[in-house]
């Protein structure tokens, strides 16, 4: 699989980071995970393009994870693409109905299918997916992605979505090749619903994960990356790095 970080930012913009979005590719399969503001433009700069992504999987319904969803639908319609599938937690169908009631000229422009999922196993866009719940200010799912052609879980990719640092998520990600985890703020910011580096390092300690990428970065983290990495590494001895927009990671 190939993972491309399209957007590694948050609801508070910085110039070089757009909002949340990941692109997963394997052979002729492509899946967009979250679709925050700016992600459509990042997607247009990939080989797949928005024409090649017909499925979007949402972790939750906060605006910085779905603001480009209808712009994606419109771009696909204008490009002559006829289908879009949106998969996400409970309430995704009513969310799309509400968006299309506001922007009613887009209703019916493409064949739109919506599927709601919970903390279970399912398939989407040709990938095998396991989901688990995160602690956040609204219902949010983390996902573990497997390539059905890979023949094992060692090449799995895990995305936390948004949420607090939890032992359950660390267990969920154990043995994966890549974990992309929300790490929105440095340690001196008093915050809930998102982890700080020390909190994340504490729950990752003792787990075997190939590489951890920190994402969903608020402006508060600017200029403090080394400090944040040191905080995690003092608790967790694995490979931890900051993600950036456009970073591609190939997983065998």
Fold blueprint:
Layout: E1 2-7, E2 21-26, E3 29-33, H1 39-44, E4 55-57, H2 69-78, E5 83-88, H3 92-102, E6 111-116, E7 121-124, E8 127-134, E9 140-146, E10 157-159, H4 167-173, E11 178-182, H5 197-204, E12 211-215, H6 225-233, E13 240-242, E14 248-250
Parallel strand pairs: 3-4, 4-5, 5-6, 10-11, 11-12, 12-13
Antiparallel strand pairs: 1-2, 1-14, 2-3, 7-8, 8-9, 9-10
Helix pairs in contact: 5-6
Short description:
This protein has 252 residues and is of the alpha/beta class.
The largest pleated sheet is described as: 7 strands, mixed
Structural class: alpha/beta
Q: Quote the distance from N terminus to C terminus.
A: 7 Å
Shape: globular
Helix content: 10-25%
Over the alpha carbons, how many angstroms does the gyration radius reach? 17 Å
Helix run count: 6
For the biggest β-sheet, the strand order reads 6-5-4-3-2-1-14
Mean pLDDT value: 96
One letter per element, helices H and strands E, the order comes to EEEHEHEHEEEEEHEHEHEE
| Beta-strand percentage range | 25-35%
Low-confidence stretches: none
Find the count of extended strands (DSSP E, 2+ residues).
14
Structural key phrases:
alpha/beta; 7-stranded mixed beta sheet; globular
Structure description:
By secondary structure, the protein is α/β, with parallel strands linked by helices. It has helices spanning 39-44, 69-78, 92-102, 167-173, 197-204, 225-233, and strands at 2-7, 21-26, 29-33, 55-57, 83-88, 111-116, 121-124, 127-134, 140-146, 157-159, 178-182, 211-215, 240-242, 248-250. The protein has a 7-stranded mixed beta sheet with strand order 6-5-4-3-2-1-14. A 7-stranded mixed beta sheet has the order 7-8-9-10-11-12-13, with helices on one face. A hairpin with a 2-residue loop joins strand 7 (121-124) and strand 8 (127-134). Helix 5 (197-204) packs parallel to helix 6. It starts with a strand and ends with a strand. The relative contact order is 0.16. The model has no long low-confidence stretch (mean pLDDT 96).
